[in-house]
Amino acid sequence: MIKKVNSIISASWIYTADKINTLLEDHSIVILEDEIFDILPTKSVFDKYEADDVFALSDHIIIPGLINNHTHAAMSLLKGYANDLPLKSWLEDHIWPAEKQHVSEAFVKDGSLIAIAEMIKTGTTTFNDMYFYPNETAEAAVEMGMRANIGLVVMEFPTNYASDPEDYLKKGLDFRDQWRDEDLISTSLAPHAPYTTSDKTLSLVGTYAEQLNLPIHTHLHETMEEIKNSISQFKVSPIQRFGALGLLGPNLVAAHCTHVGEQDLNLLNQNNVNVVHNPSSNLILGSGIADISKMLDLGMNVSIGTDSSASNNRLDMFEELRMAVLLGKGINHKPEILDSNVAFKMATYNAAKSMNKGELIGSIELKKKADIVAINLDSIFTQPVYNPLSSLLYNGNQGGVDYVWINGTLKLNAGQLENIDLDKLTNIAKSWKTKIKTT
Ligand SMILES: [Zn+2]
Q: Which of 134, 195, 251, 328 counts the highest number of beta carbons within 10 A?
């Protein structure tokens, strides 16, 4: 008997990101509701299944939806606002004053909508965020059918959003209670950085994370200056300070991790800390280069993030992956490391694992959520294709992302966003520029 399902997607290649990086040829994925129900050779799929939505993608490679593991989505409204500056001046003289003046519920909602449109168009199906007014980012994600892990920001100083660490935490935990039944939304605790949170606040975050079984998402070792200041103030590096406070563990998701010496690397490794590499942001701000190949050699869980549009200035994970592997090969003088399997694993399964979602997303396997991306490899940018995954790493995207499904729902159809008015979003970005520049 032929079973009725929601969608059948057939493609020339499917990179599964499973344990052995299986690359299937001429296979089909069967979606039932929000899950991957079956994966089988295309030649037999119609003997077993029928669907209203059938996609025959003979020019395409399918991969698991990409996971951008470190973002501040709403900051897409500050894209290009303060380029060509080091982190300290960028933050203290430009970004924080602009945020003080403009960040509001409306800013976060609009900025998040714009960021999510860019992310879906470039093959991202989950983002790991950290910003103020989490409710608005979550609303934007659910409206657009995007999966998001929302970091509940905590810091010492007041912002438009909250007045002190207790207020940040209270608002964050209220958010968590309010959104806990929403399929597409999960939460982390997000102490902003070692230099913006006290020992007392960090300890409190650690206690909540343990009690509530939540990941902790933070910036850690972003610049040399951060490390020097920590040593002069606390006599230890930020990583060592986190260790002393009991925060180093498998639930810690640490963005950046540049300038990590032997002792700090051992601490991260021994405690199974998850590292998020943000190569473009680190380069734009002149912060440094995280040597992720050392971390991967040790078996550490490394994933990839773009950071915000204000310091990248793109949210394109294909570009970020290419940057990550080229930098790693270059600084180590080893062209054979960081191949396409390692790269796409970082952008899919490793990120899912770091946010406790390894059972749900991050690979194309039975019973997982149907977060799926199809990229056209039949273009001037990619042909001839000798090794599809390698072609995707080095030549991929450039407008080639054609189809995106999130939670089983088609969000990008032949390159066009479903139910999202891109012109309207572009005009919203323009109107914020006028407001921000003229005040
Ligand atoms: Zn960041």
A: 134
Residues 214 and 175 in one domain: yes
CATH number, position 283: 3.20.20.140
Same domain, 141 and 170: yes
d(CA 51, ligand 1 centre) in Å: 42
- What is the extent of the structural domain holding 403? 3-64+364-417
Q: How far is the CA of 70 from the centre of ligand 1 (A)?
A: 6
Q: Give 309 Cα–ligand 1 centroid separation in angstroms.
A: 10
Do residues 90 and 223 both lie within one domain?
yes
Q: What does the buried/exposed string (b/e) look like for 385-416 if buried means 16 or more CB atoms within 10 Å of the residue's CB?
A: beebbebbbbbbbeebbbbbbbbbbbbbeeee
Whether residue 241 is contained in a domain is answered as yes
Our CA dihedral for 305, 311, 317, 322, rounded to 10 degrees, sits at: -100
Sheet containing 124-131: give its strands across: 66-71, 124-131, 147-154, 185-191, 216-220, 252-256, 274-277, 302-304
Question: Tell me, what CATH number does 394's domain have?
Answer: 2.30.40.10
* pLDDT on residue 438: 61
Identify whether residues 21 and 38 lie together within a single domain.
yes
User: What's the total number of domains in the chain?
Assistant: 2
Q: Hey, which residues does 126 pair with through a beta bridge?
A: 67, 147
Report how far ligand 1's centroid is from the alpha carbon of 284 (Å). Answer: 13
Q: Are residues 75 and 169 in the same domain?
A: yes
Ligand 1 midpoint to CA 290 (Å): 14
Q: Is the dihedral of CA 84, 343, 394, 65 positive or negative?
A: negative
